[in-house]
Queue: 2 jobs
Job 1
Amino acid sequence: MFKTFKALRANGVMGINERNVAYVAALNPRKFLARVDDKFLTKKLAEPAGIPVPELYGVIENARDMKRLEEFISHPDGFVIKPAQGSQGKGIIVVEGPLKGGWRLASGKRIDLEGMKFQINNMISGMYSLGGQPDKALIEYRVKFDDVFGKVSFRGVPDIRVIVLKGIPVFAMLRLPTAESDGKANLHKGGVGVGIDLATGRTLQAMQHDHFIEIHPDTAHPLEDIQTPFWEDILLMAAKSYEVTGLGYIGVDVVLDREKGPLLLELNARPGISIQIANRRGLRFVLDKAMALGDEKKSPEERVEIAKTLSDAAPVKPAMIEPADA
Amino acid sequence: MKIKIRQAVILGFALIAAGLAVFLVKAALLHYPLSPGERATLWDFELYIEFDGRNQPARIEAFLPPSDVGRAFLQEAFYDGSFGRSLVAESETRNRKAVWTYRYPANKKVLRYAAQTMGETRSTPLPLSFREAGAQVTPFEADPVKRQAFIVLSGNLRQRSADERSFADLAIAEIFEESSGGEPYADEISALLDGNPGVAGRLELVRQLLNSQGIPARIAGGVYLTEASRRVEPRRWLEYYVDREDFRFFPAGAPGRFFTIWYGPEPLLEATGVDNLDFQIALKSQETAASGVAENAPGALGAFGRSVGFGALPLTTQLVYQVLVTIPVGITLLVFLRQFIGFKTLGTFMPVLIGIAFRETALLNGILLFSLLVGLGLALRFYLERLQLLLVPRLAVVLIFVVIAMAVFAVLMAETNQAMGLSISLFPMVILTMTIERMSIIWEESSAGEALKQGFGSLVAASLAYLVMTNPQIEYLMYRFPELLIVLMGLCVLMGRYTGLRLLELWRFKALAS
């Protein structure tokens, strides 16, 4: 046990405690947290800064707004309803399109107007927000995801998580939904995480449930060496989100839309640490190097260039599959 | 960043040190017992003086135990009758004297002094002030014969001894050896003891011999507590300090426990103007709680010990605090489980609150009832989901249901004579309701497995918190030494800056260790 502890330390693997104390608490001023915790605010700040976001169809905050629900959702291509302050993808309803007087959900189930109103009421009464505060429900454009990841996704929308330290992208990962994760790309629900090389945007190795894997568990498609399109744009979006939020340590979640290219889905002030397994290396050394190279005066473009030089900071575990319980 | 870490570490250790310092003072100096129910023997000491008045001014002087010595004695009481009493402290000998006076006493009179003491043992250290080496003095300045005898005797003892310690041993042996006539200096000794061959005289001679060599020595008077009875003889012994060690020489055999009353060769009692003076010392032992003795310790230190405690509160409030002070222990345990092990629980401190509820139900029943109530609540919650109620009314429905379920249990159990049903009413229903709500959300949003995992984690944490909080030793320590709360606070401060991996993260990131 102590040997494992020492080995993980030597490899620069970061735990939740360190993330909370040394990065989240130290670099993310509390007064700015609302900018990422409230997705409505994130959207309003990101758009003028040149970061594309999914189009907002409407916001429901109270019963009066609810009367306009049918107007907000009159989009044949479907839409997404999400609590503005939800976390970890909780409470998100993805509607694919109308179905026999109701609507078809991405999960394949059907929902009627009453059911939808009930869910929205839950959202605005704070069921998914921290501490149960009153919330807003956002109704927005449903992303039609790029086919590039079609073969390695099972339903749902794959997204790209970039960890950004003081405006410098440091770690990136492709998150793929699986049958087990019910179309959600969250890793703790059984989604697949695939490391992405910051310099090239090509996928590296993959993981599911904290174990290394090589192929997608549902589609059996190999996960390595897939080129992420618009990689430069994605890095730039991630870098720019520093100016938008003022937060020094964030996770930037980007989706690839078939028509609109990369869109900022949400920001996270407490990004998870499983990304280390997907990249097969610890965060600490990369973060240390980025911290040393970082400079408040550098432009987002310059910071993207720095990001591409970071990959040599930490040793990468060999790509060979090691069963985690060996 | 670095400064913050250093500050937190300094603060944490400072808190721990401050708490431990108070703890050590109470434990080591005031002898607060470290485990509950520790018993101590306490002796009731009584000095009873009887005499006949002569119708002329009377003055009775008696030594009383000095109040500034580190040994515990308490509850002093006087019975003075019509006499005037004054207390005199002699700073040099550290003696304390009671002086009773009356102008024209007639008939039989009685005076009384009573105190309680734990006494001293041979390991009780002598006062530090006593250890300063005295000047080398040769007594009997006025009597050339005695002076000559003393010089011969001390010179000879000095010659036959190697150092101060062997000098002292030899002097005691020489003077207290029964005169069988064989000693080479029997003549000198009997000359020096002239007119006072008793124990007191011999002790005084040894003291003079030791002082002549610069060894601090004094005669102490008191009683042997091991001789507890209605009538106890006052005893004399010698205290001296040599080679950085305390020594006591008891001519009448060493007692296990004794009680010092005065120092010096004078008798315990002196009186003028009275007839038929008689005194009696009574000693009675009694068993008592050791904590009570410590809490009544005299002096500023004793008052300090009392100020860091709950003794001043009314009894009912004390009982509340007896429970309250254990909660931080549970909280600290929970912090450890979360920050170092990586336990996942429903709600931050919910397990501790459940643990407190277990106090009333006992562990096994508590776990059963908790699981049952949460299970029923979850079932209802899933049904309510179908009714599409709004959040707050839905929580209210679940809460009311929890109360009803608890009431039904209580009634059913009471009918079957199960006492455990009654204890259920103290379950925190709001906590239960929130637990049910949280669990059902995790159930839906993540998975049933995750919900059960967190529920199980909470239950394990609650059980551990309960076991820690109800441990009699921990309960006692926290209540008797509330300064340990500061220590817990310091521990939590330190744990708050722990940035290392958690135990469960070792397992999680095992793939990255090579």
Job 2
Amino acid sequence: MERHTLAIHVNDQPNVLTRVAILFGQRNFNIDSITVGATEEPGLSRMIITTNGDEKQLDQLIKQVSKLIDVISVDHLSKDPMVAREIALIRVQAAPAVRAEINGIVEPFRASIIDIGPESLIIQVTGDVGKVDALVALLQPYGIQELTRTGTVAMSRCLNTSLIYA
Amino acid sequence: MISTAEQTRLLPEMRFGEELTGAETLLRCLLLEGVEHIFGYPGGAVLPIYDSLYSSKLKHILARHEQGAIHAADGYARATGKTGVVVATSGPGATNLVTGIATAQMDSVPLVCITGNVPQNLIGTDAFQEANITGITMPITKHNYFVRDIRDLPKVIKEAFFIASTGRPGPVLIDIPKDVCNISAPFYPAEEVNIHGYHPTRIPTDEDMEAFVEAIGKATRPVILAGGGILAAGAHEELLQFAEKTRIPVISTFMGLGNFPGTHELALGMPGMHGNFTANQALMNADCVIGLGARFDDRITMGRTKEFAPNATIVHVDIDPAELGKNVETAITVAGDVKSTLTKALPMVKANASEAWIKQLHMWQEQYPYSYKKDGTLKPQEVLEIIYESTNGEAIVTTDVGQHQMWTAQYYKFKNPRSFVSSGGLGTMGFGFPAAIGAQMAFPERTVISVVGDGGFQMTNQELAILAQYKLPVKIVIINNQCLGMVRQWQEIFYDQRYSSIDLTCSPDFVKLAEAYGVRGMRATTSEEARAVWQEALDYNGPVVIDFRVASGENVFPMVAAGSTLDQMMLGDEE
């Protein structure tokens, strides 16, 4: 089971997220993460979906998603070099005594402490999934009270990716 | 899709910019799409639409249940190739369409389903008769719309008809809240459809064509697997020419029956779970299987996709690229309209099937025809034979779902396209009879026969009222074995004869039921009666229900059990 990142270009219509999400469920595909937002073109949104499956499943998934009327194109981003990032906010249990120690973990990750409470910190980290996972693992021993992740946004490194038009 | 000239002819009195309500706009747009008949059922949220219908030239057929209405619209669409139209109210009216929408989606039938909804200020408040029908039908429609603004209506309706009828056809739902129906705005018809992201026309490329022709040219034991796509594309003539020129035998899938003349020397009939010996053996022994608008579904591959047609190069032409390689490993794929593919291929091909292969197939056909044991009782297969012989394969025949459906597919050799109407993909019981109403509405002069079981008929038999009301001369053939025959068959074979909940002996007297609706009722219990009664029914100029009391333990053979391969056929007790 390989991990894949897809960029789905859609009409900015009500329910378009539901249509795509329902299709994934209907065809028995998993969604690991999903992000939606505006694009450079007015009226169009781009969804970044990370999913997993073998080559045949992915081929079928791309073809089925392409059939949705509101889908303009599906781009298999992870097929070629790409950049992918997500943001995570992590609330860690942190009495004053361990704050310096935690800061020592945060710094090499280029993460930042964005809120300090009497017994906890909120850390913001940006990076690919692996980097965020690694920081979360390192902070685990201090006690993670709350964790929220945006899901991946991604873009190809060059523009000659395989666009599949719906 | 109709031309501007045609639109002008349809609406000579049409004035642009005329102030119309949303309901009037809807009906005006339906007329512009060339709609003549709509099937439906009124209710609170569609009162404005029904008020406009009161003075419209559209012919509305009042069903007795929304499910009956949508299956009738579906039968109308399948028999004509035109887009069927159904109207229902919000909430329960809309949800009663769900089975019919899923039926049409599975069999790629063009429908436009119009539902009312509560006014927008009540949406989301759990208002009386409110249901989120666009949400509910998202997985079972090709597309759906919720109309928020009257000014969007002409565009939405035009798009809906375009989407429903182009590419791989399918149902489109338009949900219109009541306030949009009531409000007025100047009416301007929509411009040409241009949907960003929807490009349904697919013409095969030259490279596609070369690969297609080359693969076929190499084969010595080729067979065509022709599906419903041939009918959807109107490519039956091209198929006939292609098969005759190449001398490649043609298997017609269940959905494809009628796409190739059933009595042609190259016709092999239906394959699959209840297909015939020759068609299944042809698939298992072929060196090239040419799928034309067929989707290699699990009733043909039996889910054993690796062992399906093990010696064959599979060539697949389909307008829906998602079907290519979906179910079986395919060597040559052509994403394209099957009509243009065959038209392009015709001058490029020559006769190539080995005559030895055809001879082998003919030998199997002779050796293993569909057969059943005659024992003096009235057999269901015999009823279908009588019907076939008396109508010469030229009637429109609709079926319900179950044993009678398979026997119809086996024994009725369809001569013409769009004359077999049956729920293949979803297998919707209750479909057959209302579908016949739609077909008869479209073709008042043709013989329309609805073959149903005693089970399925009771799911939608309330629509007998339509037959009486509109004097539609549908011949309803009940293959009455007093039980749910196909379930019984599976329980007999796979569940150790533990017959669970299949007894239908407490069904109504169907003759009296028919008469209660003002429809003629007849009954036959022996072969002699069956012949006489059927002839009388055919000669009678009106709707008639014939209760054929058939032997109840009869099974459909051949049969390939789920999980077996096509060459592991149970041939039945006739051997």
